[in-house]
Design brief:
This protein has about 190 residues and is of the alpha+beta class. It has helices at about 30-40, 65-75, 80-90, 95-100, 105-110, 115-135, 135-145, 150-160, 165-175, 185-194; strands spanning about 5-10, 15-20, 25-30, 45-50, 55-60.
Amino acid sequence: MIAHIQGKVTHRSPTYVVIDCGGVGYCLQISLNTYGKIGDSEALKLLTYLSIKEDSHTLYGFAEEEERQLFMQLISVSGVGTNTARMILSSLKPAEIKLAIVNGNWNLLKTIKGIGPKTAQRLVIDLQDKLKKVESPDMLQAAQFSSPAYEEALSALVMLGFGKVEAEKALNKIKQQNPESSVEQLVKLTLKSL
């Protein structure tokens, strides 16, 4: 398998990039998540997954190992192909997908284009135990909300004397209800709940 491709970007779009590596242009299918992370970089290194079918060989590119691993887990589920997995990764962040699966929230998964109730339930049934072994819901929750404002608010709460675990749980609840809050708002609301 081709593990990664590194080279100069000759074309980029929200669905694919072309990377010139040693004079050969490799077309890699990407998710919107990866597209957002690669920005306007001229030189790029993407982790890859090679899908081989009777009529095509398709390379999929990922900015991070976490996304590639999740992609491979998604396509291991019956009825979920590579394009469906890419659509799932384009619709939600990897941490949000994992959290939905671990918590059995198939209603969130079925809101993704191309995912019906049966496929959403199958994703939860097939992957829930696998993900629970390697991911804790609290870690996923924190990763889902990780942002500069979240990090600053957490740091402020710890400096005020609250335990990190206790502060994270309370802050996660507040961030879920108020996703666009400033650092000051997050701290004030969390202090009220502690």
